[in-house]
Amino acid sequence: MAGVFLALVVITLFLGVKIVPQGSKHVVQRLGKYHKTLGPGLNIIFPYIDTVAYKVTTKDIVLDIPSQDVITLDNAVIIANAVAYINIVSPEKAVYGVEDYRFAIQNLVQTSLRSIVGEMNLDEALSNRDSIKAKLKGAISDDIADWGITLKTVEIQDINPSQTMQTAMEEQAAAERQRRATVTRAGGEKAAAILEAEGRLEASRRDAEAKVVLAEASQAAIEKVTSAIQGNELPVMFLLGEKYVDAIKEMSAGENAKIVLLPGDIPAAVRGIMGGMSK
Fold first, then answer.
1. Which of 24, 75, 183 is nearest to 175 (CA)?
2. Exposure string (b/e) for 20-39, b if CB count within 10 Å is 16 or more?
3. Looking at residue 31, what DSSP letter applies?
4. Is 57 helix (H, G, I), strand (E, B) or coil?
5. For a designed S-S bond to 45, which of 50, 61, 139, 218 qualifies (C-beta 3.0 to 4.6 A apart)?
6. Helices 233-253 and 266-278, interaxial angle, to 10°?
7. Residue 146 has what DSSP assignment?
8. 3-class DSSP state for residue 257?
């Protein structure tokens, strides 16, 4: 009998003495109802009536938020995930205020992330992580405070276009590069055409000026010859005969020349030319 009593005393002491490790808190229920929260160290509870219903960590908890498809304001699909750092400050609220605080916070972050990104264009969503982070923290901090949980911070791990969107963006970028190359090539061709036209214009202007100079020189030469011969046809016949012979030489040197006929009386031929000119 004494042994049974001793054993009962030992069991009672064991049930009444609770040691809570550092970094944890224990939630005690009395007859199924919340009674108190035990802090780290040695604690005494009423045996058989009080029981430790929940053991909650007070360390920072890292919650990985799964990736999800998010639609932006301009109907682009991106894939985003995040990580949240939380701390339980009121264990009794965390265990009694929500069925599963981890699952609840994950869904809350995902829902808020979809809502925030849905108000942004694709370019804004991809480049404004800090803005998304600030809005996300402000959106969920008050909600989880009712569960006795503090949101230390939330980080956007990845936010990238979907595979289909990435393909479309790559095609768009390639098309833009091709367009710029076409514009550049067209500009170069235009500049080359303008330079070529200006070159032709300048060459034509120079040719015209040269012809004018040659005409003026010929006129001056004719005037000098006319003044020199003073009615004497012999010098004229000599000059025309020289030109006539040079022309016959050029004809005989041609690739298609077969037979070249020379007049027997060159002076008579020259006189004929002069007579035709005088008419």
1. 183
2. beeeebbbbeeeeeebebbe
3. T
4. strand
5. 50
6. 110
7. T
8. coil
